[in-house]
Design goal:
single chain; Rossmann fold; 2 domains; 4-stranded antiparallel β-sheet
Length: 318
């Protein structure tokens, strides 16, 4: 699989053996080997059938223009036949790997959001769902909020060092600024490309967390929905605040936002949310069991939005 994110290309080999078309680099030694090259170059990519022969698919990725390095750009690919892909830049770089091109085209992009209190397992479920969709042949963009942009970095500093003199109203403005950039530069572009966007936190977290600081949840919702598109599916991972806090402590990464009283207020606002696309998931179960419940809902959504009447893609277990 190859990915281009923030202008960098990453090639992850599916197999490190029998690279018949290997050119200038050593064979990848494991699935963990990754090759990265510069962000402002043009890349040519082509796939070869595993038995050899001419490329079965060719494409190229234009470089990011100078000054656009902060944009988040994601490109993934997969194919029906297991073949090899050669990635070359202007200088001598050639990387071969097994991969597939997206097998399934949707009539439009899809937007799936994961929400819940700290420790609910959102990041884990985003990763599991993204991997499962890719195995099934869908083009996926996994994102998170706050972003890595300037406003997102300011918010992360608050989590690490405390709010100090920053008021809840100012913090809300930072969330809105960060989300506007995310919507404009990442979410809307990925949806326009027909990708499935899987997002770790969205404006529902802002409603709950800033609402727990005595701001008006309905006003927060209205300000966000003025520019932020609603999701096709919203998964609210539910578990008691004490349970979530215990999980956070176990991973040793408590932030200044993670006190029991505060999380209980956040959880109460989450519990009061009511949207037609909202699905509540019991997050106290094992992560793989939670993923199965999530997949049932996602498979139903995929069936409704498929371009053809063919069944939802089965996962590639090879």
């Amino acid at each position: 699989m190859f990915e281009i994110y923030n202008g960098f290309i990453r090639v992850t080999p599916g197999s490190g053996k029998d690279n018949a078309h290997e050119q200038t680099t050593e064979k990848p030694s494991s699935e963990q080997d990754v090759a990265c090259v510069g962000r402002h170059q043009r890349f040519s990519l082509c796939s070869f059938p595993s038995g050899g022969g001419r490329p079965g698919w060719e494409d190229s990725i234009d470089p990011l223009p100078e000054g656009e390095g902060g944009k988040a750009v994601s490109h993934t690919a997969a194919s029906d036949c297991k073949g090899y892909v050669c990635c070359t830049s202007g200088h001598a770089l050639s990387v071969l790997c097994r991969m597939t091109l997206p097998r399934h085209r949707l009539c439009r992009g899809l937007f799936i959001v994961f929400e819940g209190i700290d420790g609910a397992g959102k990041t884990t479920q985003v990763r599991l769902l993204g991997e499962r969709l890719q195995r099934a042949g869908y083009d996926v963009a996994c994102l998170k909020e706050p972003t890595e942009g300037p406003w997102g970095q300011k918010l992360r500093q608050l989590a690490q060092h405390g709010r100090q003199a920053i008021s809840p109203a100012t913090e809300l403005e930072w969330f809105l600024q960060d989300r506007r950039e995310d919507v404009e530069h990442n979410i809307q572009l990925a949806l326009a490309r027909g990708q499935i966007v899987v997002l770790d936190r969205y404006y529902f977290s802002t409603i709950a967390y800033q609402g727990a600081l005595q701001l008006n949840p309905e006003e927060i919702r209205a300000r966000n929905e003025a520019f932020a598109p609603p999701p096709d599916l919203l998964f609210l991972l539910h578990l008691p605040a004490a349970h979530g806090l215990q999980r956070v402590r176990q991973r040793g990464a408590l932030s200044h936002f993670e006190g029991l009283d505060y999380l209980e207020r956040v959880a109460a606002i989450f519990a009061a949310l009511d949207f037609p696309y909202l699905r509540r998931i019991d997050a106290t179960a094992d992560a793989l069991a939670v993923q199965e419940h999530i997949w049932q809902e996602v498979a139903s959504l995929l069936t409704r939005t498929a371009k053809t009447d063919s069944p939802v893609a089965q996962e590639d277990t090879a």
